[in-house]
Amino acid sequence: MPGKIETAEGSDVPERRGVYLLTHPRSASNMFQIMMAKQPGYQNSGYKLFDAGFMSVGQMHRGRLSEWPEDDRTAAFAAFQKGWENLQNEVADAQKNGKQAFIKEHALFLLAADKFFAFEFPNDDVKAPVLQERDGPKSAHTNPTSLPDRFLLSMQPIFQIRHPALMFPSMVRAQASIMSDTSTRHPRVYSTLTLRHSRALFDWYLKNASSERKPRVIDADDIMSHPSAVRQLCTQTGLDPDAVQYEWDEVHEEDPLMARFKSTINASKGIIKGMDARSLDIEAEKTKWTAEWGEEEAENLAKYVKDAMSDYNYLLTHRTRGE
């Protein structure tokens, strides 16, 4: 039954508590979440760690965490701790209501400030709080995020991906509407133009997840154009393929930041055609970027797209396909 996959009796695998939709900015994940909003047996919820993650992105220009004032470091970790508490609250509330949680988060935002900044400053030495579940046994931390292993292993992971040549320029445009400097040379921009976090977490799940919670991958193209792939994904993850929505009402978003990032999906009433990567020509896209941002920015963006392709293609080989 959808929402009722149970852990085998006597197993040391933590009880399944929901589905974790692990995405990347501008991967059309808001659309997929709406499509799954009426799954029976699930409590659908959005970002819990977004605020802390976006805070990290916005402060990359400040340099090493170890050189920050102590109060500022404390505030950064406190923001992630607050998100972690909210995440636990959501899962607990779903359980109280006799349901499992369906939660979406960008994979790179599962990293607290110390881990997020480490990719830019790998030799920085910062002592960060070790997070544990408040009502559970102590957990190991072998995964590449800041969340405890036991929590991650209690969730069915679905990784949503999209071609970098579509995601990355869209992210630059979205940031441009809320930030003053969105040059691809700026760390708060290029820190998001990578799929390494998704791949690292996927590989960890592949090695450590139980067989009944194998990590799944869905590509945005398949979501938009191949309903059979979505149905297969539902079958693989305990979701109801007959409860997937393909039409919905327009949404008004009160939060201005969320309104910007959700502007396209909030104005839609269903899947928007023509936004997939079929017949995508990188050189043709690069010409468009040059017209929009200039030659240097277009070259930089093309480099980040090229660098991300190995991770994208790797994840693509693991994607769920339609019958």
TrEMBL record:
Please give the SUPFAM superfamilies that the UniProt record associates with this protein.
P-loop containing nucleoside triphosphate hydrolases (SSF52540)
* Source species, domain of life: Eukaryota
The cross-references to PANTHER family, in alphabetical order and at most eight, read:
PTHR48312, SULFOTRANSFERASE
This chain's protein is named Sulfotransferase domain-containing protein
The lineage is:
Eukaryota, Fungi, Dikarya, Ascomycota, Pezizomycotina
